[in-house]
């Protein structure tokens, strides 16, 4: 995922959410609608989330240090995980609390044109933000479904913004429904029910984000396509005759670690083995540019050892496991 594409979507969402949060809070002050208060807190939390994503992107660009020799690429995963916590605690839990209070102590909505007008404006602004996120995601999504894109994306920013914007649009529709029913029936309980629904929605989205970013924090391997390209690049049939086994790990969204045991001819000299490793590394980087940290261990492939079992730690190595 390109940093520029993710940043553009984040900035668009940040601008939209700041404007929407201010408008929603004004509407709450004039109408007393709990849905509007919950939505204003939701938009404010989303604005903070976009700030966290921008901060994580900036910190991730720091140079590697002796204490952190693989760099700070995972900062982006950490801050994306913080987004899910903020969305759950500030957005979801507050909305549920506010909805519960409104149901137990309902109040008639005053100056109904304020919340309705602001919600219509917010839907238009969120649609613009959502459209930007979709436009920036499409080139990276390829043939994947949206569900697969969110689950497989190694860069967290666009999936986070997509889910936030989707949740915001659905939340606005729920708020509009709750406010509309409260106005039509004169019963403020509907406003509280709409607020509760917003809270449940935000918590569900936060849980999905937490699960996906947790997987990235734990360390995910390269995608199937990248693994296939690396396998094809390693073996040239002459100096490197076989890939015995390999492991890959994302150090960050655009930085991949590759560790592999490769088979070389038993009568190669040390110079020939070193040249074979250097050439294999060049082929890997040409095939998968994000493969920036590569460790290749030469070995002598043994049919007998390979037939003994699938243990990839066997020396000389067993069959390849990916």
Overall geometric form: elongated
Helix content: 55-70%
Q: Nearest-angstrom radius of gyration? A: 26 Å
* Strands, total number: 3
Low-confidence stretches: 1-5, 314-322
Query: End-to-end distance, in Å?
Result: 23 Å
Instruction: Characterize the main sheet.
Output: 3 strands, mixed
Strand order in the largest sheet: 1-2-3
Average predicted confidence as pLDDT: 84
Q: Helix tally?
A: 10
Question: Would you give an account of this structure?
Answer:
By secondary structure, the chain is mainly alpha-helical. It is built from ten helices and three strands, in the order ααααααααββαβα. It has helices at residues 3-31, 34-60, 75-104, 113-141, 146-152, 157-185, 189-218, 224-234, 270-287, 303-308; strands at residues 242-252, 255-263, 291-299. The protein has a three-stranded mixed beta sheet. α2 packs antiparallel against α3 (75-104), α4 (113-141) packs antiparallel against α6 (157-185) and α6 (157-185) runs antiparallel to α7 (189-218). Residues 1-5 and 314-322 have low confidence and may be disordered.
Task: Supply the key terms.
322 residues; mainly alpha; 3-stranded mixed sheet; 10 helices; 67% helix; disordered N terminus; disordered C terminus
């Amino acid at each position: 995922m390109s940093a520029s594409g993710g940043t553009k979507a984040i900035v668009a969402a940040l601008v939209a959410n700041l404007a929407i949060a201010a408008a929603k809070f004004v509407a709450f002050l004039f109408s007393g609608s709990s849905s509007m208060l919950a939505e204003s807190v939701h938009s404010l939390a989303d604005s903070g989330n976009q700030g966290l994503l921008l901060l994580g992107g900036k910190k991730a660009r720091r140079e590697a240090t002796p204490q952190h020799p693989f760099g700070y690429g995972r900062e982006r995963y950490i801050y994306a995980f913080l987004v899910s916590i903020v969305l759950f605690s500030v957005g979801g839990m507050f909305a549920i609390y506010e909805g519960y209070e409104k149901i137990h102590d309902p109040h008639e909505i005053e100056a109904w044109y304020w919340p309705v007008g602001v919600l219509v404006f917010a839907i238009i602004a969120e649609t613009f933000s959502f459209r930007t996120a979709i436009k920036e995601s499409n080139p990276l999504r390829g043939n994947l479904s949206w569900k697969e894109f969110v689950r497989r994306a190694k860069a967290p920013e666009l999936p986070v913004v997509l889910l936030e914007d989707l949740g915001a649009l659905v939340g606005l529709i729920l708020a509009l429904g709750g406010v509309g029913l409260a106005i039509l029936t004169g019963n403020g309980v509907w406003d509280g029910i709409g607020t509760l629904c917003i809270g449940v929605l935000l918590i569900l989205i936060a849980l999905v984000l937490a699960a996906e970013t947790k997987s990235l924090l734990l360390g995910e391997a390269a995608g199937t396509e990248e693994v296939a390209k690396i396998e094809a690049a390693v073996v040239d049939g002459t100096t490197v005759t076989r890939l015995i086994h390999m492991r890959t790990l994302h150090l960050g969204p655009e930085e991949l670690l590759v560790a592999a045991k490769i088979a070389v001819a038993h009568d190669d000299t040390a110079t020939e083995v070193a040249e074979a490793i250097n050439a294999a590394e060049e082929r890997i980087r040409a095939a998968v540019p994000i493969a920036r940290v590569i460790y290749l261990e030469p070995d002598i492939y043994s049919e007998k050892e390979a037939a003994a079992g699938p243990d990839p730690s066997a020396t000389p190595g067993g069959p390849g496991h990916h």
